[in-house]
Amino acid sequence: MTPPLLSRRRAAAALVALPACWTGARAQPAAPRMLTPRQTEGPFYPVELPKDSDADLLRNGSAVYARGQASWIDGVVSDPSGRPVRGATVEIWQCDEAGRYHHPGDGGRADPSFQGFGRVVVGADGRYRFRTIRPVAYSGRTPHIHFKVKLAQRELLTTQMYVQGDPGNERDFLWRNLAPDARAALTVAFRSGAGGLAAHFPIIVNA
């Protein structure tokens, strides 16, 4: 009969050895995440960037925009392995509550108190945040916000973000032609939060 002390020692040695057997399964790298789908830039990227082009689109200089549903939009810019893309520039542009862009091709009739364009440079954590309005529909398009991501002189992504559950999505030619996984990546929920609505839009790019 094996002495109890020896049995306990053998059991302890077996337990120590077990992680070596499991290491192979645990050490497998995570599968790369899907890149954020590209979409057309559209006709209304600013011809000339506004003097006020910070992250708050509800203030244009000293003017305050009070129309629409105030919203916070945030996210993280990362690569397919999940590493933040430090130093990336995130730009957004969109129409005002009346469906007008700050662009000569749209008649130049946008509300001057709405900035319409914003830009931020992300830090080591890859996070960005904008203050704007929930996007609205205009001339046959479902509500959307345009996004562009750059790193130094390289343009990494141009795309559009959509509103989850908006009835105009099914009628929109760009949204309708997206594959299901691409729709899921570009369509986000706007939920009630502190200071208005809030939406989270993660961005995954090859950097």
Task: Sum this structure up briefly.
With 207 residues, the protein is α/β, with parallel strands linked by helices. It is 16% helix and 29% strand. The strands form three sheets. Strands 3, 6, 10, 11 and 12 form a five-stranded mixed β-sheet that branches. A five-stranded mixed β-sheet has the order 5-4-7-8-9. A two-stranded antiparallel sheet has the order 1-2.
Description:
- There is one protein chain.
- By secondary structure, the protein is α/β, with parallel strands linked by helices.
- It has one domain: Aromatic compound dioxygenase (Protocatechuate 3,4-Dioxygenase, subunit A, Sandwich), CATH 2.60.130.
- 16% of the residues lie in helices and 29% in strands.
- The chain is built from three helices and twelve strands; from the N terminus they run αββββββββααββββ.
- It has helices at residues 4-26, 173-176, 180-186, and strands spanning 59-60, 63-64, 70-78, 89-93, 117-121, 127-133, 144-151, 154-163, 187-188, 191-193, 196-200, 203-204.
- The strands form three sheets. Strands 3, 6, 10, 11 and 12 form a five-stranded mixed sheet that branches. Strands 5-4-7-8-9 form a five-stranded mixed sheet. A two-stranded antiparallel sheet has the order 1-2.
- The model is unreliable at 11-24 (pLDDT under 50).
In percent, how helical is the residue content? 10-25%
Stretches with pLDDT under 50, minimum 5 residues: 11-24
Estimated radius of gyration: 24 Å
Number of helices: 3
How are helices and strands ordered from N to C?
HEEEEEEEEHHEEEE
Which geometry do the CA atoms define?
globular
CATH architecture title: Sandwich
Main beta-sheet strand count, sense and barrel state? 5 strands, mixed
The first-level CATH class name: Mainly Beta
In total, the number of domains comes to 1
Overall average pLDDT: 89
| Proportion in β-strands | 25-35%
Q: How does the helix and strand content classify structurally?
A: alpha/beta
Report the end-to-end length measured between terminal Cα atoms. Answer: 64 Å
Can you say what the CATH homologous superfamily is? Aromatic compound dioxygenase
Instruction: Say what oligomer this is.
Output: single chain
CATH topology-level name = Protocatechuate 3,4-Dioxygenase, subunit A
The counted number of beta strands is 12
